[in-house]
Amino acid sequence: MSALAWVIGFVYLAAAVAFVVGLHLMRTPSSARRGNLISAAGMVVAIVATVVVAVLEGTGTWLGWGALGLGLIAGGVFGAVRARTVKMTDVPQLVSLFNAVGGGAAAAIAIADLLRRGGGTVTPTSSVPIVLDVLIGSITLSGSLIAAGKLQGTIPGRPLLFPGARFVNGLVVLVALAASVLVVLWPSTIAFVIVLLVAALAFGVLMVLPIGGADAPVVVSLLNAFTGLAVAMAGFVIGNQAMIIAGALVGAAGTILTLQMAAAMNRSVLSILIGGFGTGGSTGEAGPGAEAANVRALSADDIGIQLAYAQHVMIVPGYGLAAGQAQHEVADLAKLLTDHGIDVKYAIHPVAGRMPGHMNVLLAEANVPYPQMLQLEDANAAFPTCDVALVIGANDVTNPAARRPGNAVSGMPILDVDHAKAVVVIKRSMSPGYAGIPNELFSDPKTGMFFADAKKGLTDIIAAVKQYVAA
Asked: What's this protein's family per the entry (predicted)?
């Protein structure tokens, strides 16, 4: 082994250590930002080392280096600007696009390497990673784009099914498998690679289209795991240890998170991929709907009195909070209550929002103290002693119907909001959540509904609370 290879191997090892340490720090919100920076630093080191090796070995052409430079500049600038300017409601879409880019880039690496070799020097040992890279990367690319479209609303969020869909899916899978075998046996035949690429892209589309809006967080996590696997396969294709380690870590972490989130919905990953759960949700105009006969409407003053004289308040954030961009208002309300000696906590459901950890990220942006955020088990233990549970835009994750069999949310672990002494729900209308069924919490005698946009509703409640805490 040359001195250069030894040094580069050591640098890649250091980068891998940074990835592992960063991932470890991401386990808790208080250290997640530091972990993200450490992981990013490790990736920068790995990229620089790879470029240095290419320069010293004299590989590449001026055209190739020019394309690499333009790609780094364009991608780096776009990624930095987009990540800093994205609205919180659009973060899930951005994550899906990142997954798409990662999967597509990994597949492109495999195809480029195969074309460079011309098929003549490709052995079964190297062709298998190429096939897996093209297959997984292409599925990730097209599937993530469809997921981003569903989250953005350009593609309907409800399950999109058509007659014979499962037959078509099976046929596409068989074509992809057959093409994979043919590429391994005859890697020099580009037609087989094209068939594999098209079949994998088609399967990615067909896999995500039937998935409903309620399963969006699980799908985003699953596609993230696919991205990691595709990158690991790309590392095997070009012999880059840093890519193998980074991809394996992302794939493993994404898989674990996917399984945990599926469990939080009491559904298997297979049932999520096969079935269509969720209608995609609806917004509706502010005000009660047709099924609101037993609903008790409240005013901001009513809620202000309840909160001002409470001792323990639990805030339950949902996608409506993100859609209304009201994270700063809810943080202001919590601070106002806390400053007057009222204990305030947040109940976080694992699948609230549109992506894994959506509510945690949303509240962190508003500088909500991490100790105030309670996960499902801790929150449920605290609800019986809670004077007021303030639900903001959460629907299916608070529906008591989940405790009974025979409906769309049966068996799904929920936040036991109805165990609080009083419940206040801020919502624009009585429209159902992604599961498409009414929330029984809304008609509970202890529940009061405040029909308003999250931002405006919280602003009015803050003004009301100030009147009573100052009295």
From this structure: Belongs to the PNT beta subunit family.
Q: Count the domains in the chain.
A: 3
d(CA 394, CA 392): 6
pTM: 0.78
| Range of the structural domain that residue 428 is part of | 300-470
Cross-sheet strand order for the sheet of 312-317? 373-374, 343-347, 312-317, 388-392, 423-427, 447-451
Which residue in this structure is represented by tokens 């070009």? 238
DSSP character at residue 88: G
For residue 396, indicate whether it is catalytic: yes
- Among residues 113, 133, 396, 418, the one annotated as catalytic is 396
Beta bridge partners of 316: 391
Q: What is the mean pLDDT of residues 305-326?
A: 91
Give how far Cα 38 sits from Cα of 17, 25, 44, 92, 247, Å.
10, 9, 10, 23, 16
At residue 377, what is the residue type? Answer: E
- Give the DSSP letter of residue 445: T
Q: Using CA atoms, how far apart are residues 349 and 378, in angstroms rounded to an integer?
A: 11
Question: Do residue 16 and residue 68 come from a single domain?
Answer: yes
pLDDT band at 435 (very low <50, low <70, confident <90, very high): low
